[in-house]
Amino acid sequence: FLAMAARYKLWYNQVARPDLLTKLQLKNVHQVPRIEQISVSASTNVTTSQLNHPVPAAFALELITGRTAQLTRVRKGNARYKVRQGFLEGAKVNLRGEDMWNFLDRLVTQVMPRIPDFNGLSSKGFDGNGNYALGIRDWGLFLELDSQHSNLSNMASARGFGVLINTSAKTDEEAKLLLSAMRVPFAQSEQGEQ
């Protein structure tokens, strides 16, 4: 994993950062936007009668990211769905440093090409503050989960993954330039609308 992580970090430092410095017309290299953190989360929609329902999601996140997952709880209960405040809901992992670069590399080079009929990511995932969120429905796109099919039999109840890429960019346009420089593929029809 170190070779892959170093490859993407090296790409940012030697190719993307100088390119963004000229495109954004910045005076200092330290003003160039950077990826600060990637949060990967998974939640399940299993009934509350199964007490260990977020465990497969946490196990899958640990296999994919190589980090220990934190279990998440419901913040606000909802009687319609028979969910109470404090019930276990899913799991999440926050990635920084080498783990972040490693995950981004695998997401762009291994997972996205395996998505059927993939034409690029939508620009609607930006939140207005320079962060980008995307969802991945199919757990089987990750190579790390192929050998664990029998252990993850409960994954049919999972909703999928949520990936949030936090950047230091001030605007969505800067963040899109940063992610495009990091080879994150956006849909062609939306790239012309900048």
UniProtKB/TrEMBL annotation:
Name listed for the protein in its UniProt record: Large ribosomal subunit protein uL5 C-terminal domain-containing protein
Biological processes annotated in GO: translation
InterPro entries in the cross-refs: Ribosomal_uL5, Ribosomal_uL5_C, Ribosomal_uL5_dom_sf
GO molecular function, one term: structural constituent of ribosome
Pfam family, one: Ribosomal_L5_C
Family classification: Belongs to the universal ribosomal protein uL5 family.
Domain Large ribosomal subunit protein uL5 C-terminal: 90-186
UniProt keyword terms in alphabetical order: Ribonucleoprotein, Ribosomal protein
One GO CC term, this protein: ribosome
